[in-house]
UniProtKB/TrEMBL annotation:
InterPro entries: DGOK, DGOK_C, DGOK_N. This is 2-dehydro-3-deoxygalactonokinase. It holds the Pfam family DGOK.
């Protein structure tokens, strides 16, 4: 059997490591994200590699995401768009942890209209993984959406990332649902998250700042539950994001490929479908493993 190796996605909120052996996933370990580290990043990675090293040697590690951010494991910059997979491969940074060679993949950067700066770390791995899993995406123009804390909308042309736009929708939702007065106390009320989400989609065309207040007013006047209000905020924010992207999309009409967590992607798919878009879904974990596998094969 060939020597095992490790692939990993190290984000702001969590670390996910995959031990690969014999062409298949042989183990998985999780850990803290780079925003919650209590010890240096190399120590966190070493602790987990040491667990697997007791099972046998590890040839190498390939990481993406915030592992390459300043102050994390090792600084890996950004490959500038337009960027294809070869450009991405060529920009990796190398280090060593527990005696194991570690390659950290870069993020991508671009400037949109008017020179507005944009960056991503980790999502590019899912994009290039999707291209390897679905070769048809390498031809023509495509719009790929990656829902998350900072959702990315990526424009592909013949397998090259031409540009992308970020919507920090997940961060807005967390702040508004968890730290504002809009959802109110956890007291009894009517309505589910799902019904609130539907109502939020219905108000997508209204001015966002005014529409937000229904989350609170509906609790007071209509007896809505906190869960309903959370769903309402989610529908309103996701609906506003997807509507803005669908309106400016000139790629093949309204075809959008969603890559990410299945539950969150389903909400985005629901919003896009309500706006007349055609949607296809790809699992985020599957895409990131495919992207890391692809990178490892090219940079080894």
């Amino acid at each position: 059997m060939s020597e095992a190796f490790v692939l990993g996605d190290w984000g702001t909120s969590r670390l996910r490591l995959y031990r690969m052996s014999g062409g298949a996933m042989a183990g998985r370990l999780n850990g803290p994200g780079t925003s919650a580290l209590e010890t240096p990043a190399d120590s966190v990675l070493a602790e987990r590699l040491d667990l697997w090293l007791t099972e046998g040697p590890i040839a190498d590690v390939t990481l993406c995401g915030m592992a390459g951010a300043p102050g994390a494991l090792v600084e890996a910059g950004y490959a500038a768009c337009p960027a294809d997979a070869a450009t991405w491969f060529a920009s990796c940074t190398r280090t060593c942890v527990s005696g194991v060679p570690v390659a950290v993949m870069p993020g991508l950067s671009c400037r949109t209209g008017g020179g507005v700066p944009e960056v991503m770390r980790g999502e590019e791995t899912q994009v290039f993984g999707a291209l390897s899993l679905h070769p048809e995406l390498n031809e023509g123009e495509h719009l790929i959406a990656l829902p998350g804390t900072h959702s990315k909308w990526v424009r592909l042309v013949d397998g090259t990332v031409e540009s992308f736009t970020t919507h920090p929708t997940g961060e807005f939702f967390a702040l508004l649902a968890g730290q504002s007065t809009l959802t109110g106390p956890d007291t009894p009320g009517d309505g589910t998250f799902d019904s609130g989400f539907t109502r939020g989609l219905e108000r997508t065309e209204n001015p966002l700042t005014a529409a937000l207040f229904e989350a609170r007013a509906a609790r007071m006047l209509d007896g809505r539950s906190k869960d309903w209000s959370r769903g309402y905020l989610s529908g309103l924010l996701i609906g506003s994001e997807t509507a803005s992207q669908a309106a400016c999309d000139t790629v093949g009409g309204t075809q959008v490929t969603l890559i990410g967590d299945p539950a969150l992607s389903a909400l985005y798919g629901r919003a896009l479908s309500a706006q007349g878009c055609n949607v296809s879904l790809l699992d985020g974990d599957t895409a990131v493993v495919a992207g890391l596998n692809l990178a490892r094969g090219k940079i080894a």
